[in-house]
Amino acid sequence: MAEPRIVVLGAGPAGAATAIGLRRLGYAVTVVSDWRRFAAVEGVSLRVLEGLRHAGLGGALSQAAMPASRQVRWNGQHLQMNQEFLIDRQRFDRALRDDLQRAAVSIVEGRVREVVHEGGHRVRLEDGQVLAADFLVEARGRQAPLAADRLRGPETVSLLNVWQGSPGVPASAVESLEDGWAWMARLEDGRCYWQVTVDAAGLPGKAGLADYCAQRRARSAQVAELFDEQALEPAQVHARSSTAILAGECIGHDWIRVGDAAMAVDPLSGNGIFQSLSSALQAPVVINTLLRRPERAALARQFHQQRVEQLFLRFARIGRDFYGQEQGRVGQPFWDQRQGWPDVQPLHLAADWHAVRVERRPVLRDGLVDEAEVVVTADQPLGVWHLQGVELAPVVREIRSGRPVEAVLAGLAGDPQQMMVRRWLDEQGLV
Length: 431
What we know:
The chain is an alpha+beta fold and 431 residues long.
């Protein structure tokens, strides 16, 4: 049987992580990517950096991440927060290609014109080149065609302004505004970024955006503190959608959506790159199952679809709760819309031992999607299979059968495992 031809559309973090994960499983992979057309910078946490390294993208990080001090003006407070890391996206994206090449992934530079799905996939590029694929990974982010059954949050636009200022110590800040919020950063070489996120309706036309943004910066004490007078001048503006979107169907028998093409979250969640990786890290195993174990295809599709949907809701609720912390904006339309979306369910539900149950669900095992008994809890609706190798379903079954908890724990190997499982049981409300 011929090896499947796998084509990944997009070489951002999600596409790159998926491609490298497939190479680790022994597949030949081709990535199609167009160069980023605008300068951008993103602030990320140490957790995101660790996730990128785990995904095989450490080379890109070493080229593009720099620590910066961070300030927050929110809910009437002005706080000096812990540092965040600023990622120069153009440099980062170039370095991602180096990571891909080191992993022996083929890269085709070009812009996708159309994708035809007829007994396989035909990817036509703007230069006329045509690529054939047996399996397609859609990782073009928000540029990917939208599914008909998508879920959308409040319509939101981010206006990114870029200009050259004086060199200085890297720094970033975020501040709430009456009708939105702004994030800003200054890099060591003096490049300056200011991005305002507002409702999509009511903005001036494209020709008036630079003046509109400059006028807003002139009214900001945070801008005056972080930048020099150059910040008061009109600057280059790039407008992009920041609407939270869940794509709907995210997987078929020979295609899959990952990263922002599957779910894109409001930037206030602070998890843009991390959520892209969250869906991409599981994708290689899901694809491997579809290609090598077609009898498990339904299980693999269920695994990916459910996890994308749960991740989306989790990140959407994180963003909602950040909006909710701003109590001084109650009654203002921008804030009212976002403080109650996507729902009012708490990010973390209260523990309830009586609601804990054992069910068979899809899991990842030995490079494939398999089925196993997992423990479903209020806070983990998809189930927990094991804690660092200790399967939880047998533990729960024994306790439910009436066996004393101490006797069940005594059957585990070693004090560390016993303490870990005891702590987990306590967290589930077992008393």
